[in-house]
Known about the structure:
Blueprint: H1 9-14, H2 18-23, E1 26-30, H3 36-45, E2 52-56, E3 62-63, E4 69-70, E5 78-86, H4 95-109, E6 115-117, E7 121-124, E8 127-138, E9 144-152, H5 170-173, H6 181-202, H7 208-213, E10 221-226, E11 229-238, E12 244-247, E13 253-256, E14 260-263
Parallel strand pairs: 1-2
Antiparallel strand pairs: 2-5, 3-4, 5-9, 6-7, 7-8, 8-9, 10-11, 10-14, 11-12, 12-13
Helix pairs in contact: 4-6
Amino acid sequence: MTIANTLDKQRITSALTQNCAALMSDFTVFAQIDSTNGYVMAQARNAARSGTVCFAQSQSAGKGRQGRQWISPQGANIYGSFLWHFSDISTLNGLSLAIGVGVVRVLKKYGVTVNLKWPNDIYCDAKKLGGILIEVTACADGRNAAVIGLGLNVNLPPNIDGITQAYTDLHRIAPTVTFSRNTLIAHLLNELLPLTATFEAQGLAAYVDEWRSYDCLLGKSVTVYAGKQAIHGTVQGIDDNGLLKLQHANGEESVFASGEVSFSP
């Protein structure tokens, strides 16, 4: 597999569709940054417009869920974030699931088959390929600014310190496919910016059935960690609102709006 080692703003923007380019208000590429999500969140608090986008070659303090660090070695993967404003915060429910569907759509164009793990991970062969992090802040005009972050493993070095779960990358999944990170970023933006721009009107209903077709947890015995509780059961998929359905040993069912899910391949 061939990988373009340097991110190039011109190469990325030249591959954007007209629709995507019209939705983008600002685009920055960093050689290194502490966190792309942190940068875009700071821009949001300074009244940045929807469509503010940044990507980085590396992150010194990349953000994962639950306050974890997203390990971000130089020039190996994709680290990026973008901003969008929403009038009704309740419409953000399920946005991370829809973004996951968008990522899968892009990878399918490369012939790469992956799955989704509730609520925000991209998986392949029971190993983590990428993750989505959405952070929200209130704006002075009453709207809500959502910062959508994406980390996607392209060519991770082996035995990285700090990664405590099984992981994979596009190099391992598709060794015969030629990837340019610049082109891949453009394809992701072409899919994800229009998806996000229309999500408030369409909602999760436009994506929930497709998400279910990629669900890697369906029927699996798992442990859901919600706060200080560890709840065991069998995953019954997600409901129409994107909540995880878990069946307990006694046959009763619970739903979860958030939580960490652990399972054995």
